[in-house]
Amino acid sequence: MGILEVKGVNKRFGGLRALSDVNLSVQQNTCHAIIGPNGAGKSTLLNCLVGKLIPDTGSVLFDGQSVLGRKPHEINQMGISRVFQTPEIFAELTVLENVLIPCFAKRDGAYRLHAFETVAAERDINAQAEQMLRDVKMWEKRDMHAGSLSRGDKRRLEMAMCLSQRPKLLLLDEPTAGMARADTNNTIDLLKEIKGRGDITMVIIEHDMHVVFSLADRITVLAQGTPLVEDTPDNIKGHPKVKEAYLGEAAH
Amino acid sequence: MDALILQTLNGLDKGSAYALIALGLTLIFGTLGVVNFAHGTLFMIGAFCAVTLQRLLSLSQVTIDPTKKDFLGNALKVKTPYIEAWFGKDAGAAIVNWSVPLSILLAIPVMLVVGFVMERGLIKHFYKRPHADQILVTFGLAIVLQEVIKYYFGANPIPTAAPTDFAGSIDFGVWMGFPPNDIIYPYWRMVYFLFSVVVIGAVFAFLQFTTFGMVVRAGMADRETVGLLGINIDRRFTIMFGIAAVVAGTAGAMYTPINSPAFTMGMNFLVLSFVVVVVGGMGSLPGAVLSGFLLGILESYASMNWIKDVIPGIDQIIIYVIAIIVLLTRPRGLMGRKGVMED
Amino acid sequence: MLGLGKKDLTFLLIVLLLTLAAPILLNPFAEGSAMAQFNAGYPDLMQRIAIFAIFAVGFNILFGLTGYLSFGHAAFIGIGSYAMVWMLKLLTMNILPGLILATLMGGAFALLIGFVSLRRSGIYFSILTLAFAQMSFNMAYSVLTPITGGENGLGPALGDPRVLDAAAANGTIPEVNLFGLSMRATYELDLAGRVFQFNAGYYVCGLLSVFMFYLALRLFRSPFGMMLRAIKCNQHRLNYTGLHSRPYMLSAFVISGMYAGLAGGLMAAMDPLAGADRMQWQASGEVVLMVILGGVGTMLGPVLGAGFIKYCENIFSKINDHVLHEWFSIFPKWLENLLVTIVHPFVGQGWHLTLGVLFMLVVIFLPGGLIEGGQRIGRLIRRKPDAKGKAAATTPAE
Amino acid sequence: MSKLELTRRGLLRTGAVAGAGLAMPTVFASRASAFTNEPKGGVVTLGFTIPLTGPYADEGNDELKAFQLAVKHLNGEGDGGMLSTFSSKTLTGAGILGKKVAFVSGDTQTKPDTARATAKSMIEKDGAVMISGCSSSAEAVALQSLCQEAGLIYMVGLSHSNDTTGKDKKRNGFRHFFNAYMSAAALAPVLKDMYGADRAAYHLTADYTWGWTQQASMQAATEAIGWKTVANVLTPLASTDFSSYIAPVLNSGADVLILNHYGANMVNSLTQAVQFGLKDKMVNGKQFQIVVPLISELMAKGAGPNIRDIPGSSNWNWKLQDAGTKAFVQSYGKEYGAPPSQAAQTCYAQVLLYADAVARAKSFNPCAVVEALEGYKFDGLGNGPTEYRAADHQCFKDCLVVKGKDKPDNEFDTLEIVQVTPTAQVTYAPDNKMFAGGDLGQCNPGA
C-alpha cells in the first residue's frame, strides 16, 4: 500500500475525456515521475491530487484518507505541498517572510488569531526559516522583495517554502520549466539532497528527461489520459510504448 | 390589481433611468474593462445641460417700465428673453417651453467631448492598473466634477419644467376597463420611458448591425485577438466611451422634469446603478437593461402601502436585499459571463 | 518593551508625545493674529481627528493589509454611536460601558456583514459591503426610527432611566463623563497671547487612539498581519500553504469593524447626538479618502490622512472671500482680485474640490499617499548613494 | 471679522508677565469666565448655523443674508432696518453693549449631526456667545440641546415642529417662528370655507419631528372640522422622487392631499403631484385639492405655476403693510434685490431680540438673557404685538393663511395673504398634549 493511492479516476470536460481509469500507487519516500506528451492529462491528474478538481469517479487516498472534495489548505495540512509550474510566491513580501508563512502554517494550522505576537519574537520559527534559506543558499537575500528575484531564485524560494513545511508528499509541477541549465542542475542537486534525507515522497511532472532520469525511482507514462506504463527509469528508457507515445511530438 | 399595474408603470420610469445609466456603465466596463465611478456624474452633467440651455434661452433684455412699480416702489424692470425678441413672442415662448427636449441637442456634443476628454485624458492611463485604482481615481473625478457643477450652479436643486404640452397624466385605467383615476401616469414619464426604449434599442441595433458594433462586440469578447487582426480597437473603444457618456447625459437631460437637477444627483444614482449592473451581471448589456427595469419595478412594488404594512421599511432596502441575494446565489449576476472580474 | 522593537517603540512614544502636546502644537498662532484661523487646537477638531484616526487605522487593517476595499465601513460607525447613546440613555452617563458596547456591536455587525460579503472578492465585495451599509443607513433612517431617532438623531433625554446614575436634579441632563470627569471639562491656559485648551474629552479620545494605534502596530508586526499581507499578494499560494484565507479575512474585517464601532462610540460620547448620516456611503468613502491620501498600508498614513481631511473640513472651509482679500491685499488691486477669483473655488464651500483634485493627484502620481510623498522628498534631500539599495529593502509597513 | 481687541489683551497680558520678570509660574494662569465665551474685548461674536446644502438650502441662504443684514444694522451700518420700528429702543446701532458685533457662519447641510459639529467649532474655536439659525426642526432640537449643555443662548431659526418648544424645549433656547399647531389652528377654518366639511385627506409626511407634529396637528384640526383621514405615509427627508408615494393617492378614496413637506422636498413632491394631474381630477364628485400647511415664498418660487391656488400658512409675508415689515423689506430689498422670505424675517428678528435682551439685561450672561426674554412683550418686528411666553419660550403672535397666487404680477408675486389669523385663535395652553413631556430645566451659563 503506497502513501498515495489513485484508483480508477475518470475526469471529463464536456466531451473531452481528460483522465480515464487512472490507477497510480506511490510508495512512501520514493520519487515518482509522471511524464507524457502535451495534453496527456498530467496537469489534470495533479489538480485532482490537490483538490482543485474533483474526479467524476474514482478515489484518491493519501495516507489512507481521501483527499477528494477537500479544500487546498486542508490538503496541505494533511502533508501535501505543491510547487507550481510558474512560481507562486508572495511577491510583495520579503524572502524571509515568504518562508516564515509556511512555517507558521505548519505549526499553527490553517487559522490562528496570532495578532498580538510578534514575528521577530518567534525564535523557533525564525530559526527554522533561517535554516531553510541557508539550505537553499538564499539567506543573503532574505530582506529582498520576493518579486524582485530572478526566475530561478523565485523557483528556489517556492521550493524552500514547500520544504520548510517538511511535507510528507511534495508535488512538483515542471519544477525546472524555463530554467537555465545551471539553475536546472542546482535544482536537481537540491532535490537530490532532499531526497537523500529519506523522509519525503515526491511526485514530479516534468518534460525534461534529464531531470526525470536523475531523480525518479519510478516513472509513469501518461498518454491520452491513461497510464501507459509504469516502471523504473531504466526500463522506461527503452520501452517501445513510450517511444510510440512520444513519436507525435517532435520535440522529444 | 390596478395598484399593481400602477406601480409597474411607476417602476418603468425609475427603471428607465437605472437601465440607461447601467447600460452606459456596462458599455464602458465591457469594452474598456474600467469600473467607472464617475458615471453617475455624467448623468448629472447631462441634466445640467438642460439647465444651461434653459438659462441660455431665457437670457433677457432688461427694459425699464416706469408705469409699473416693483416691490420696493421703484420703476419695474421688465425682462424680455432675446429669443422672444428674435423669433416673435409665440415662437420664442414655444422654444423656451421645449427647452428640455431641445437640450438633447446640446447634451450630445457636450457629452461626447466630456467622454473623449475623460477617456483620453485620464481613464486611458488606468487600463492596466488594478480595479481598485480605477474605482478610486474615478471616484475622485466624480467629486471634482460634482464640485465644479456646484460651484457654477449652486447647491440647490433647479426646477426644470417639461413642455407644458406634456403636463398632466394619461388615464390608463380607463383603457383597460378600470374606473377613472385608478391608473394614471404623467405624460412626461411616458415620454421618458419611450425615450429610454428608443435609446436602448438604438445602442443594441448599433452594436448588432454595424461593422463598428461588430468589432466592438468582438473586442468585448476577446480584446487581444481582435487587436491581432490589425484593427485599432483602442480608437473604437474611445468612441464607445463617448457613446456611453452620451447615453448617460441624454438620460440625465430628459430626467430633469421628473427630478430637479442638483449636484448630488450623480452620486445618488451611482450606488444604485452599480447595484443594477452587478445584479444584471458585469459586462452583460441585456443584463444591465433587464435588471434596471426589474429593480425599478420591484422598488415600486415594495412601496405599496400594504406591503409596507407587512414588512415595514422594505421599500427602502429592497434593492439592496435583492442585490445581496443575487450576488450570493448567482455570483455572476442574472446574465453575467464567466470570468468577468473574478480573481 | 510592550512587545515592540526598539524602532517601533520610539515611533510609538513620538506619537504619544505628539498626541499629548497636540493642544499646544496645533495652536501655533497668537489669538487675533491673521494666522489664528489656521489654529486647530480646539477640542472639537482635535477630538474629531483622534476619532477618525482610530477609524482610519482600523480601516487600514482591512484595506491596507488585505487589499479588500470596503465601501460600507461607515455603518459600523453608526452602530457604535447608537450603542453608545443607548448606554447613555439606559445605564449611565459614564462613557465606559458605552465604549465597550460600541466596540462589541461594531464587531458583531462586522461579523455578520463580513461573513456574507467575504464570500466574494474584488469589486463584488465592494458592492456587497456598499449594499449592506446603504441598507443599514436606510433602515436607521426610516423604519428603525424608534431605535435610531431617524432624521432627528438620537440623544439622551430627561426622561431616560439611567439606572446606574443618581436621579438628575433640577431638570437638566447630567454631563457625559468618565468616572465623574466631564468630557466637557477644559482647562484653558493663556500663554503669550495663545489660549491653549486642554480638554478632558480630547485626552480620552487621544489616549484611546494612541492605544488603538499601538494595537494596530502590534498587529502589523504579528504573524497575523503577515498573513493578511500575504492574502493581498497571493491568496492562491496562501491556500496551498495550508492557510485558510477566509477566517483571516473575516478576523481582519471584524477587527476593523470594532475599530469603527469604537470610533462611532467615541463620536457619540464627545457629542451625544447620533444622526443616521454618519452611516451614509459618502462617509464610507471619506475613510477611503483618508487612508489613500495618507498612505495605504502604512502605519502613520491613515492618521495623517484623517488629520488632513478633518483639518481641511474645519479650517479650510472657513476661508471666505473676505479672508482671501485680506491675504492678497499686498498686491495691486487687479492682481488681488484675480488671485481671489482663482483661489475662491478651492476654499470655503469649495474645499471639497481641493480634496477631490488632491485625491486624484495622489491616486495617479503618488499611490503611496502623503507618506510616500514625504519619503520621496526626504530621499531627494538626503541623496546618499546607498539610499537606493536601502529603499528597496525596507518593509512597506513603516 | 476683526479680533484686534483680543490681540491687544493678549499683548497686555504678555507684557505684564514679562514685566514681572522671571517671576512666577503664574504664567500658567487659567482663564476664568463667568459664563461660556464671555466676550472680553470690544467685539462680540455670534454664530450662525445655516443649511447651505441639503433639502432646505434655499431657506438657509436667505437666512444668512438676513443675519448679515441684522449684524450690519446692529453695528450702525446701512439704513437700520427694523431697529427704528422695534418697540424697544435699546439698540442704537452701536453694537451690543458697546461691543462691535462680529459673526461666523457655517453650513449645516440640513443635517442635525453636521449642525452640531458646526456649532461646536463656533463655540470652541471662534468664541461665539450665541448661536442662531437652522431650517429644519431636527437641527433646531439638536442645536438647542447643544447650547443648553454648553451654556449658550440658542435663538431658533426656522423651526416649525411642536417639539422645539414642546417636549424638546430648553431654558437656553427661544423660538420666534410659529409652530405646526398654530398653522393647523389658523388653516382649518379657512380650509372648511374653501373645500367644505366633507373631505377625506391623504397625508404625505416628512419622516422627522417636524413632519410628525405637523401631520398630527393637521389631522387633529381637520378632523375637528369634519374631515376624514385616509392615510398618512411617511417619506424620508432625503428622498427626491415621490412618484411611488403619489401614484396611489387618487384611488385611495381621498380627495385632498396634504403635503407635510418643506423646502426642496415640497417643491419636488408638489411638482410630481401636479405632474400626476392631481390638481385637475374629480374625486368623490369633488375637485381634488392639494394643501401645503407650511408655505414659504422660496418654495413658491421653486414650485412655479404648480403652487397656484394651493393654500397654506406662513409666519410672515413681505406684503404685510405694517411699519416694521415695510422697513425690513426696503432694507433687505435694496441690499439683495429681492424681497425677504419668512425665514429671513424670523432670523433677523431673532438677532434683534437677542441683542435687545442683552442690552436690557446689561449682560451677555445667558441666564440674564433668559430672564430678559421670558415673558417679554414687543412689537414692530413685522408680526404685530408679540409675546415670548415664559412657560415654553414660544412667541405668540398673529399668523398668516396664504395661498399661491393665480395670476402673479411679477416674479416675486407668488403668494397672496388670505387671512391674518389673530393671536387668540392660535394660542394654546402650555400643557397642551401636543407639547407635553418636556421641561425647560435650569438655565445653564456654562463655564
CATH class of the largest domain in chain D: Alpha Beta
Alpha carbon gyration radius of chain D: 23 Å
Count of discrete structural domains of chain B = 1
Query: Would you list the SSEs of chain D in sequence order as H and E?
Result: HEHEHEHEEHEHEHEHEEEHEHHHEEEEEH
The strand count of chain B comes to: 4
Element-level helix/strand string of chain B: HHEEHHHHEHEHHHHHHHH
Radius of gyration of chain B: 22 Å
Low-confidence stretches of chain B: none
Number of domain units of chain D: 2
| CA(first)-CA(last) distance of chain B | 45 Å
Strand-residue proportion of chain B: 5-15%
Q: What's the overall geometry of chain D?
A: globular
Order the strands across the largest sheet of chain D as they lie in space. 2-1-3-4-5
Shape of chain B: globular
The end-to-end distance of chain D, rounded to whole angstroms, is 25 Å
Features:
heterotetramer, A: 252 residues, alpha/beta, Rossmann fold, six-stranded mixed sheet, four-stranded antiparallel sheet, 9 helices, 24% strand, globular, B: 343 residues, mainly alpha, two-stranded antiparallel ribbon, two-stranded antiparallel sheet, 15 helices, 4 strands, 7% strand
Describe the structure in your own words.
The complex is a heterotetramer of chains A (252), B (343), C (398) and D (447). Chain A has helices at 42-49, 72-78, 95-108, 123-135, 151-163, 181-196, 209-215, 233-237, 240-247, and strands spanning 4-13, 16-26, 31-35, 57-62, 65-66, 80-83, 169-173, 201-205, 218-223, 226-231. Chain A is α/β, with parallel strands linked by helices and 252 residues long. Chain A has a domain at 1-75 and 203-252: Rossmann fold (3-Layer(aba) Sandwich). In chain A, the strands form two sheets. In chain A, strands 6-7-8-3-9-10 form a six-stranded mixed β-sheet, with helices on both faces. Chain A has a four-stranded antiparallel β-sheet with strand order 2-1-4-5, with helices on one face. In chain A, strand 9 (218-223) and strand 10 (226-231) form a beta hairpin. Chain A is globular. Chain B has 343 residues and is mainly alpha-helical. Chain B has one domain. In chain B, 68% of the residues lie in helices and 7% in strands. Chain B has helices spanning 2-32, 39-57, 82-87, 89-97, 99-121, 131-153, 172-175, 187-209, 211-221, 223-228, 233-255, 265-280, 285-302, 305-310, 314-329, and strands at residues 60-69, 75-81, 169-171, 184-186. In chain B, a hairpin with a 5-residue loop joins strand 1 and strand 2. The radius of gyration of chain B is 22 Å and the shape is globular. The model of chain B has no long low-confidence stretch (mean pLDDT 86). Chain C has a domain at 25-281. Helices cover 64% and strands 4% of the residues of chain C. Chain C contains 16 helices and four strands. In chain C, a hairpin with a 2-residue loop joins strand 1 and strand 2 (181-182). Chain D is α/β, with parallel strands linked by helices. Chain D folds into two domains: 43-178 and 318-392, Response regulator (Rossmann fold, 3-Layer(aba) Sandwich), CATH 3.40.50; 181-314, Rossmann fold. Helix content of chain D is 36%, strand content 17%. In chain D, strands 2-1-3-4-5 form a five-stranded parallel β-sheet, sandwiched between helices. In chain D, strands 7-6-8-11 form a four-stranded parallel β-sheet, with helices on both faces. In chain D, 66% of the residues are buried. Chains A and C meet through helix 2 and helix 3 of A and helix 7, helix 8 and helix 9 of C.
